[in-house]
Design brief:
Layout: H1 11-22, H2 30-43, E1 47-51, H3 54-64, E2 72-76, H4 81-89, E3 93-97, H5 108-116, E4 121-125, H6 134-138, E5 144-147, E6 155-159, E7 165-170, E8 177-181, E9 194-198, H7 201-212, H8 222-252, E10 275-281, E11 284-287, E12 298-301, H9 306-315, E13 321-322, H10 328-331, H11 333-336, H12 341-349, E14 350-353, H13 361-372
Parallel strand pairs: 2-3, 2-4, 4-5, 5-8
Antiparallel strand pairs: 1-9, 6-7, 8-9, 10-11, 12-14, 13-14
Length: about 375
């Protein structure tokens, strides 16, 4: 059976963790410091702290923001369920928002409605490696905490006043603070934990005061950092592999009736794939693909029943999972089904297919064949 998820752990990762174990320095120490230095270089942030859990990162971000006790935090219905549970446990009111069906993300219009209903902070989960229209969200003038666990490495083109291109901005540079989860199925893994980042000096000065006072037991141990260091270093190479596989999958879906999420800067509807015969990559035809996204998964929005697609793929020894099986809407479907209609529809219809660098050529060929013949 070809599993939907498989962490990309190779010899380099194993050697790094083994060396840490041999040195008998597995608690928070030098590797935690080195990992933070690498995070700062990769994301261009001013400061960061690596913690044992995403909940610790969220709690610290809210403290640094001095967000009012009992205040209302807006989250997507398709955000991971831990967002909802953690905010409730911390004593905040949670306002769950519906999504734009073309991206699976909240947009400025949806968030503005949330603000009108009392929302004062946005915890923004950038699912499936896709970034929303960040400029329009920033124009709402509310604090944003980015969750870039699935979008790390994604880019947004930027321009100066004369419309001349500037270096693109990375996911994680838009929010007041950003959380990078390092769990098993995140785009960068340490086997657990999270990094909390401050994009600028002003934000880091505030966060550092709380970070310096944090208990050592909350810091990410070196044994996890050893894995994360190599994962971050190998990210560009792994992402190239994922994008090549993504292109093959996308081409396979061209003649089918199922849809893909829009990965354009101005999304409007679920994307129908078309070829571009003028562009070529590695001798293969390049498709209508926004390479500024992160290809952390291959989601397909189905036009038929999920159970039929899952059964069909299973007969070919391919595991297919619901794309949002661990989401807020999955946790609270009975309560949110009528108010978050688009999110509920995507929860029921979005399927995830295996996409990771460790897939062999024969596995990829099998998945491509299944995608091109889905019922």
């Amino acid at each position: 059976m070809i599993r939907t998820y498989s962490t990309t752990i190779r010899r380099k990762e194993m050697d790094s963790v083994l060396t840490c174990m041999v040195d008998e320095k597995i608690g928070p120490g030098d590797l935690n410091v080195r990992f933070i230095q690498q995070i700062k270089a990769f994301f261009g942030c001013d400061g960061a702290i690596a913690l044992r859990s995403p909940v610790s990162a969220l709690k610290l971000a809210l403290r640094a923001l001095d967000f009012e006790a009992g205040g209302t935090v807006m989250i997507s219905a398709l955000a991971p369920a831990w967002h909802y549970e953690a905010l409730k446990d911390l004593g905040y009111e949670v306002l769950v928002l519906d999504v734009d069906e073309s991206t699976g993300l909240v947009n400025a219009e949806i968030v503005q409605r949330g603000i009108n209903h009392g929302g004062r902070l946005l915890l923004l989960h950038e699912s499936m490696g896709i970034l929303p229209d960040m400029a329009s969200l920033m124009s709402l003038n509310i604090p944003i905490i980015e969750d870039i666990s699935k979008s790390a490495g994604a880019l947004v083109p930027s321009y100066d006043e004369k419309e001349s291109p500037l270096p693109p901005k990375k996911a994680g540079s838009f929010g007041v603070y950003s959380i990078l989860c390092l769990e098993e199925h995140d785009v960068i893994t340490a086997g657990g934990g999270a990094v909390l980042m401050a994009p600028g000096r002003r934000e880091w000065i505030v966060l550092k005061k709380f970070a310096d006072a944090i208990s050592r037991i909350e810091l990410l141990p070196d044994i996890n950092c050893a894995l994360a260091l190599v994962q971050l270093k190998e990210f560009p190479k792994n992402e190239i592999s994922r994008k090549e596989i993504f292109s093959l999958y996308q081409r396979a879906c061209m003649s089918g009736k199922h849809k893909m999420f829009s990965r354009k800067n101005n999304p409007g509807e679920l994307e129908t794939v078309q070829t571009n015969d003028d562009a070529h990559t590695d001798g293969r035809t390049s498709l209508n693909l926004d390479y500024t996204s992160t290809m952390c998964a291959f989601p397909l929005v189905l036009s038929s029943a999920f159970k039929d697609v899952k059964h069909y793929a299973a007969r070919k020894e391919i595991e297919v999972l619901q794309g949002y099986e661990d989401s807020v809407i999955a946790l609270k479907q009975e309560e949110l089904g009528e108010t978050c209609i688009r999110a509920n529809s995507l929860f029921l219809r979005c399927a995830l297919f295996p996409l990771y660098p460790r897939l062999t050529h024969s596995h990829i060929e099998k998945i491509v064949k299944v995608l091109s013949t889905l019922p």
